[in-house]
């Protein structure tokens, strides 16, 4: 099972270290940024499941970071605030902040809230994505079955995972390193030919239609492109 990814954006390095410790104990992958600019760069490259965002940041503050995130994603955000930040809470609620934690706080409380949010997220995702349909492809995630033009297609477990991952991230350029990390669950080690082999097998087994194709983006990776 893929470990959930948590992004912490906070300028206090001690807060980051404490949160990282407890979140990793709970089985999460964690990355931290100490300013808004770096935080947004990590948000776009890592695509976290949850963001823990400090309101008070140098230069680009938490409000600006939240606005930028909301232009691109509905990812759950837990905001770290001052004890009396009532106005900021009201503003944040209007921008989809799901939870608040006032400083000073026990990092175990934040970790518990992250776990609760991940449980809800998992349940919502499972309910919404049991069956994925793109053009002539029907992917049943619970049964691990694929049909193309009404005919069952025999895929290996890894081919199925790869297809599911690409469909869930349709129209996005996915690097080979990213696919290795998310589907094979290990970091880039200089060898990505296995990705190319699995992509070729999917292309061979599935009949692309006028609604989708698995596109090679030269120098970048692959994209499951949906036309309509």
What is the total domain count? 2
Mean pLDDT: 85
Given this structure, which CATH class of the largest domain is correct?
A: Alpha Beta
The global form is elongated
Largest sheet: 5 strands, parallel
Termini gap: 31 Å
Helix content: 40-55%
List the helices and strands and how they pair.
Blueprint: E1 5-9, H1 13-25, E2 29-33, H2 36-46, E3 50-54, H3 62-72, E4 77-81, H4 86-94, E5 99-102, H5 107-128, E6 131-134, E7 137-140, E8 145-148, E9 151-153, H6 157-168, H7 176-184, H8 193-205, E10 212-217, E11 221-226
Parallel strand pairs: 1-2, 1-3, 3-4, 4-5
Antiparallel strand pairs: 6-7, 7-8, 8-9, 10-11
Helix pairs in contact: 1-5, 2-3, 6-7, 6-8
Q: What do you see in this structure?
A:
It is a single chain. The two termini are 31 Å apart. The chain has a 5-stranded parallel β-sheet with strand order 2-1-3-4-5, sandwiched between helices. It folds into 2 domains: 121 residues, Response regulator (Rossmann fold); 96 residues, Orthogonal Bundle (Arc Repressor Mutant, subunit A). The protein is of the alpha/beta class and 228 residues long. About 4% of the residues have low confidence. 44% of the residues lie in helices and 22% in strands.
């Amino acid at each position: 099972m893929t470990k959930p990814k948590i992004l912490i954006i906070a300028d206090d390095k001690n807060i980051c270290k404490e949160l990282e410790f407890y979140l990793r104990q709970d089985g999460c992958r964690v990355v931290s940024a100490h300013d808004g600019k770096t935080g947004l760069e990590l948000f776009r490259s890592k695509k976290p499941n949850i963001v823990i965002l400090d309101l008070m940041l140098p230069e680009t503050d938490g409000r600006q970071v939240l606005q930028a995130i909301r232009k691109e994603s509905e990812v759950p955000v837990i905001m770290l605030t001052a004890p009396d930040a009532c106005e900021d809470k009201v503003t944040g609620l209007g921008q989809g902040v799901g939870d608040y934690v006032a400083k000073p706080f026990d990092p175990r409380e934040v970790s518990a809230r992250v776990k609760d949010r991940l449980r809800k997220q998992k349940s919502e995702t499972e309910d919404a994505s049991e069956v994925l349909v793109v053009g002539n492809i029907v992917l049943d995630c619970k049964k691990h079955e694929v049909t193309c033009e009404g005919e069952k297609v025999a895929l290996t477990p890894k081919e199925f995972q790869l297809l599911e991952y690409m469909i869930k991230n349709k129209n996005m350029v996915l690097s080979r390193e990213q696919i290795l990390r998310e589907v094979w669950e290990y970091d880039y080690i200089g060898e990505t030919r296995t990705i190319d082999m699995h992509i070729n097998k999917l292309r061979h087994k599935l009949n692309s239609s006028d609604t989708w194709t698995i596109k090679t983006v030269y120098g970048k990776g692959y994209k499951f492109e949906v036309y309509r």
